[in-house]
């Protein structure tokens, strides 16, 4: 925003006007929109800007006298302030751009710069600006001539080749007219600018007085003069030369910039007094020192600095030709174009290019670049002999090249044949290298592939063997665990079944024994009861008979009958008991038969279990033998040493206890 504000200040300063207030042509600043906007953008008050533009302080002894400016002086002061702001603003922008691009740092080694040079200006009225511009063009034209004409022809002569010098227009006399001391144009202008009472007319008369004998200078009437430039004669009007060369920026203007609120005007003021350490003290001595250098001297110093930079570079020139003065497309003015070509020295450049030798190389460079194209070896291996042999081999005519002391000079188009042959040779060499490198790379690839395959096979075999050993150990361990587990399970099952059978046998036998014992006891009891009943019956009968016999009486028939009935009942009961005993005997016999059958079945089952156990033991023995055989086969098949497997032996027989019920 400050940048655009300063640009607006320059524009608004141009709109400030002045009014004459007395007969001595003193002026005052008109109060208008331009004055208010310029003061606002600068950051100062309107009275400060008015004082800076319309008055000047003059130191007379120890007193300061304020003097009003005339109309011409006020306009010059206004324009000087605007030009100073614009110039410092331009320098500030360039500095910011260079800072952002990083120019001037250590890593900046190479650069490509583009210089848009001035064009020769010749108007109906040419002033101080055209004078400076055309002087700069003369200096740049001399650099162009020196680079394309003088240096090239001097190189031909120094290297000892046959060369006829091409004449061209040299502007050394014109530059001497400008820069000669103490009677050059620039020196006389600076000298006249130092006189307070000097005028533009007195400057013109001084030029006529001192330079009338110079062929490049022509004095004219009314303060005008002509200079014969490289591009032609240009007439200059000396009006304003001295004032523009002084281009004074008075103390009031610098104080005004210091008093502004914006930062950029303060920076511009500090630059104007050459970066004085005490910026607050604006002594007249510092201000006078900062203004000693005239515009022409500043311009000349900047131009010489530019020329020094150009001398340290490898320049390439682009000449822009204006087709017409009307700035219209597709219009071509022959006379204008021809004049520009003559002024720019293009015809001389074309003449030298056609007659000269644009391609030049040292003998060493030529031999290194094209020496390998020789189809046969040269006796002398020095670069000159090799270069000449290459040129003769390709049948290049002698008039198309010249051999100098240190360099070989070739005309236009002669290097093309050498470059074509070089390219063909390089392409052939590249093709051979490509095929050879391809073959070499393929061989290396196949070798690496074979080695990688062998390494992979070895690694994979080692990993497979290691994996096989690991799995084989696990398999043997699993088989061994299964063997002992199955053996343990079978033994546990057999023991449990045997215990269950023994318990069942003991229970069944105990039950049968108890039943048999009970039957025998009941039979015994029934026999005892029957014997007791019979004995009791007999005793009773005997007692009755004895009683009757003793009493001499016989028992009556009913009593005997009753007794007989009791006997018959007892006998019947006895028979029932006997029958019941017989049935119990039959049941006992049946139980004994069933028990014998059960024992037979248990014996058969025991024999079957024993057979199964023996078959399991036999299968375990066979498995162990097969494992041993597989282990022997594996060891025989393996090419490397494998870890020794631990052999696990197990009992092949299992002792079981039998319990006799």
From TrEMBL:
Span of the signal peptide: 1-19
Keywords: Actin-binding, ATP-binding, Coiled coil, Motor protein, Myosin, Nucleotide-binding, Repeat, Signal
Translocase recorded as keyword: no
A GO-annotated cellular component: membrane
Coiled-coil ranges from the UniProt annotation: 560-608
Entry's family note: Belongs to the TRAFAC class myosin-kinesin ATPase superfamily. Myosin family.
Protein name, as recorded: Myosin motor domain-containing protein
Taxonomy of the source species: Eukaryota, Viridiplantae, Streptophyta, Embryophyta, Tracheophyta
């Amino acid at each position: 925003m400050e940048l655009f504000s300063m640009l607006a200040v320059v524009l608004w300063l141009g709109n400030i006007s002045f009014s004459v207030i007395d007969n001595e042509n003193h002026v005052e600043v008109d109060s208008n929109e331009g004055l208010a906007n310029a003061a606002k953008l600068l950051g100062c008050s309107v009275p400060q800007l008015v004082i800076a533009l319309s008055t000047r302080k003059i130191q007379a002894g120890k007193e300061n006298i304020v003097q009003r400016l005339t109309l011409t002086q006020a306009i010059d002061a206004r324009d000087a302030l605007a030009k100073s702001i614009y110039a410092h603003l331009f320098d500030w922008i360039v500095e910011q751009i260079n800072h952002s691009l990083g120019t001037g740092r250590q890593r900046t080694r190479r650069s490509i710069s583009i210089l848009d040079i001035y064009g020769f200006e010749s108007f109906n009225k040419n002033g101080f600006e055209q004078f400076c511009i055309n002087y700069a063009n003369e200096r740049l034209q001399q650099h162009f001539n020196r680079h394309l004409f003088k240096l090239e022809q001097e190189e031909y002569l120094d290297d000892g080749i046959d060369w006829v010098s091409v004449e061209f227009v040299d502007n050394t006399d014109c530059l001497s007219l400008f820069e000669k001391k103490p009677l050059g144009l620039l020196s006389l202008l600076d000298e006249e600018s130092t006189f307070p009472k000097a005028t533009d007319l007195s400057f013109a008369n001084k030029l006529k007085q001192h330079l009338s004998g110079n062929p490049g200078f022509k004095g004219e009437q009314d303060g005008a003069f002509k200079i014969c430039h490289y591009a032609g004669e240009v007439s200059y009007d000396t009006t304003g030369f001295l004032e523009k060369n002084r281009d004074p920026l008075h103390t009031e203007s610098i104080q005004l910039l210091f008093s502004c609120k914006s930062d950029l005007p303060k920076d511009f003021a500090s630059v104007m007094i050459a970066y004085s350490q005490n910026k607050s003290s604006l002594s007249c001595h510092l201000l006078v020192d900062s203004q000693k250098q005239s515009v022409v001297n500043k311009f000349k110093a900047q131009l010489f600095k530019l020329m020094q930079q150009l001398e340290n570079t490898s320049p390439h020139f682009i000449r822009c030709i204006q087709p017409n003065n009307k700035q219209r497309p597709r219009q071509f003015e022959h006379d204008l174009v021809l004049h520009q070509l003559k002024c720019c020295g293009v015809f001389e450049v074309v003449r030298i290019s056609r007659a000269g030798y644009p391609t030049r190389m040292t003998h060493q460079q030529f031999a290194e670049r094209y020496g390998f194209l020789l189809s046969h070896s040269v006796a002398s291996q020095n670069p000159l002999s090799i270069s000449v042999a290459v040129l003769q081999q390709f049948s290049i005519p002698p008039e198309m090249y010249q051999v100098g002391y240190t360099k070989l000079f070739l005309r236009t188009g002669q290097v093309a044949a050498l470059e074509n042959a070089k390219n063909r040779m390089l392409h052939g060499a590249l093709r051979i290298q490509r095929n050879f490198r391809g073959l070499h790379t393929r061989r290396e690839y196949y070798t690496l592939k074979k080695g990688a395959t062998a390494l992979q096979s070895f690694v994979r075999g080692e990993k497979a063997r290691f994996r096989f050993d690991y799995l084989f150990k696990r398999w043997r361990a699993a088989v061994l665990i299964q063997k002992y587990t199955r053996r343990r399970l079978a033994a546990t099952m057999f023991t449990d079944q045997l215990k269950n059978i023994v318990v069942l046998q003991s229970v069944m036998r105990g039950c049968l024994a108890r039943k048999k014992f009970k039957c025998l006891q009941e039979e015994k009891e029934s026999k005892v009861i029957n014997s007791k009943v019979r004995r009791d019956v007999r005793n009773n009968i005997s007692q009755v008979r004895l009683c009757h016999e003793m009493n001499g009486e016989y028992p009556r028939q009913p009593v005997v009958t009753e007794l007989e009935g009791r006997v018959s009942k007892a006998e019947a009961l006895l028979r029932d008991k006997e029958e019941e005993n017989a049935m119990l005997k039959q049941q006992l016999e049946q139980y004994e038969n069933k028990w014998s059958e059960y024992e037979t079945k248990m014996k058969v089952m025991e024999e079957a279990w024993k057979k199964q156990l023996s078959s399991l033991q036999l299968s375990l023995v066979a498995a162990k033998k097969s494992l041993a055989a597989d282990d022997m086969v594996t060891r025989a098949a393996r090419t490397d040493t494998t870890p020794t497997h631990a052999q696990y032996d197990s009992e092949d027989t299992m002792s079981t206890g039998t319990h006799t019920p």
